[in-house]
Design brief:
The complex is a heterodimer of chains A (357) and B (147). Chain A is an alpha+beta fold and 357 residues long. Chain A has two domains: 9-121, Phosphorylase Kinase, domain 1, CATH 3.30.200; 138-356, Aminoglycoside phosphotransferase (APH), C-terminal lobe (Aminoglycoside 3'-phosphotransferase, Chain: A, domain 2, Alpha-Beta Complex). In chain A, 43% of the residues lie in helices and 15% in strands. Chain A has a five-stranded antiparallel sheet with strand order 1-2-3-5-4, with helices on both faces. Chain A has a two-stranded antiparallel ribbon with strand order 6-9. A two-stranded antiparallel sheet of chain A has the order 7-8. In chain A, helix 5 crosses helix 9. Chain A is globular and about 80 Å long. The relative contact order of chain A is 0.13. The mean pLDDT of chain A is 93. Chain B has five helices and no strands. Chain B has helices at residues 5-20, 27-68, 74-83, 93-115, 120-140. Chain B has 147 residues and is mainly alpha-helical. In chain B, helix 2 (27-68) crosses helix 4, helix 2 packs antiparallel against helix 5 and helix 4 (93-115) packs antiparallel against helix 5 (120-140). The chains are: A alpha+beta (357), B mainly alpha (147). Chain A binds chain B through residues 1, 5, 8, 38-41, 50, 132, 134, 195-199, 201-202, 205, 327-329, 331-332, 335-336, 339-340, 342-343, 345-347, 349-350, 353-354, 357, and chain B through 25-28, 31-32, 35-36, 38-39, 42, 97, 100-101, 104-105, 107-108, 111-112, 115, 123, 126-127, 129-131, 133-134, 136-138, 140-142, 144, 146.
């Protein structure tokens, strides 16, 4: 963020109130001046602001300039637990080998900024790339690819009892993970569809006819681990894994399958996230997690991932068309990503049928 | 109308992405303007092909219904048989959507039904449905411009 930019008039009130909040919640701080604030794209489900504050503990001393990220609930949407989930996930993985920002404040009282919000430290270096850019990483792709799959392996192999998430999240039985997730996303499609979706419905029936084996472990599931949700710097180092809004406990193959989804591969479906070859990524994940990616079970979870994606895009369309949130990214996701996942699923269903008959 | 709406939308897409978005000061506004440009691009595609896609799909679904009707019975046979002989007389997108939605709903029901039938005719209808869905997905896919 440019330090020379003035605060937009539309954000002056928010800046002042956020300053008041910090001064009330940082006991050692006497003044917390918001020097700059700007809204950034940080997920359409929550308003995200990059804030630069000047913290002083002693008016006679220069103080500290600090970068923060403010994530505030949008007007009228989302269940209350969502922000807790993300905040707790950041807390659980902070100071581990998986780079995440430090979660600082979770505030449910609407008197401060009208809606609940949480605050985390800004990641000073790195940026996220678009899933739809043709070659976002260039020669850094192999180095980043190794980290991408290794970090996911670390998350899948993490002990949810030790990191505290088991106490804060529902723990389905190992043989019920698939059904919990499929029920949830089918319900989203039921509630939010603006038109009938015969491709999704056919895939859901297929998934129910042939469930996967029980999960080999009840893992922490990031829920949206993909290109676009991590930051990396110009040297090819991961600086943050972000957007843990859909974090939960479940079958570790769920996260692996989501990361492998061809929708995140702009040019070659066998190079997920435009990083390294699919098989190489799976091998790194297996080694780091100590888990196995059984091909048949993974295929089930990959088709499930397509349905989960369709659930998200259908929900985005619904939110844009009928809700208060007119963020154009919701409309774009609803148009482009629905079409893309329908294309992927329809081809899978036809191929599978032809092979079986 | 010349230039046509898709030409206008494509022109707007270029202006939004190349001229307006880069000159906005706020990061969020730059991102939003770029996405609005992409939406204009998508809308241009839909303007050009929207009616054709729906009419083609509707006829493909009706053809499946006509083939399936003799193998069905009861209420499902009546509804599938009736839907198979419909036509698209009003070609506005809104009118085509009403018909398309109804046909898709019935296709879902027929598909679920034939999946539970072990006869060879059912496999033939199932293959035709999956082929029609694949064709539909291909017709509706959106190729993003190289940026």
């Amino acid at each position: 963020m440019s330090e020379t930019l003035p605060i937009e008039p539309a954000l002056e009130d928010l800046a002042g109130r956020f300053s008041d909040y910090l001064e009330a919640h940082m006991p050692d701080v006497t003044t917390a001046d918001v020097e700059a604030i700007e809204r950034i794209h940080g997920g359409a489900s929550r308003e995200t602001f990059r804030v630069k504050v000047h913290l002083r503990t002693d008016p006679t001393k220069p103080g500290e300039h600090r970068g923060l990220l403010l994530r505030r609930d949008p007007v009228g949407s989302l269940i209350d637990t969502d922000r807790d989930v993300e905040f707790n996930a950041y807390r659980a993985f902070f100071n581990t080998t998986v780079p995440v920002p430090e979660a600082l404040f979770l505030e449910m009282d609407t008197k401060w900024l009208d809606r609940p919000f949480f605050v985390m430290s800004e990641i000073p270096t790195g940026e996220a790339q678009s899933p739809f850019a043709p070659d976002p990483y260039g020669e850094l792709a192999p180095k980043l690819g190794e980290q991408f799959w290794r970090h996911l392996g670390t998350i899948s192999g993490a002990d949810s009892q030790a990191n505290g998430l088991a106490d804060k999240m529902e723990a389905p039985a190992l043989d019920a993970c698939w059904q919990k997730e499929l029920d949830y996303w089918e319900g989203v499609i039921d509630n939010d569809q603006l038109e009938p979706h015969p491709i999704a419905r056919a895939a859901i029936r297929k998934l129910r006819r042939s469930p996967p084996p029980p999960a080999q472990k009840l893992s922490v599931i990031h829920g949206d681990y993909r290109i676009g949700n991590f930051m990396s710097d110009e040297r090819g180092d991961f600086t943050a894994v972000l957007d843990w809004e859909m974090c939960h406990l479940g079958d570790p193959l769920e996260d692996l399958a989501w990361a492998l989804d061809p929708i995140w591969a702009a040019t070659d479906p066998n190079v997920p996230a435009s990083l390294i070859a699919r098989d190489d990524g799976i091998a790194i994940w297996e080694k780091e997690s100590g888990l196995r990616a059984d091909p048949a079970a993974l295929a089930w979870w990959e088709l499930f991932s397509n349905i989960k994606g369709l659930g998200i895009w259908i929900s985005s369309s619904h939110e844009y068309a009928t809700g208060d949130n007119k963020d154009p990214i919701l409309a774009f996701s609803g148009l482009f990503c629905t079409a893309k996942h329908n294309e992927i699923v329809a081809a899978k269903l036809l191929t599978s049928f032809e092979e079986a008959n | 109308m010349r230039p046509e709406a898709n030409d206008l939308l494509n022109g707007g897409f270029g202006t939004m992405l190349m001229e307006i978005a880069p000159n906005l000061n706020a990061t969020y506004s730059t991102g939003s303007a770029s996405v609005v440009g992409l939406l204009m691009y998508c809308a241009g595609i839909e303007y050009e092909r929207g009616a054709d896609v729906r009419v083609t799909e509707n006829e493909a679904f009706r053809s499946i219904f006509r083939d399936a009707t003799p193998h069905l019975s009861g209420d499902l046979q009546n509804r599938v048989g009736s839907a198979g002989h419909g036509t698209d007389e009003v070609l506005t997108i809104s009118a085509l959507n009403v018909t398309n939605d109804a046909l898709r709903e019935l296709l879902i029901e027929l598909h679920a039904h034939v999946e539970e039938v072990s006869d060879s005719w059912a496999r033939g209808i199932e293959r035709a449905i999956l082929k029609a869905l694949n064709d539909s997905a291909q017709m509706r896919k959106i190729e993003l411009p190289a940026l």
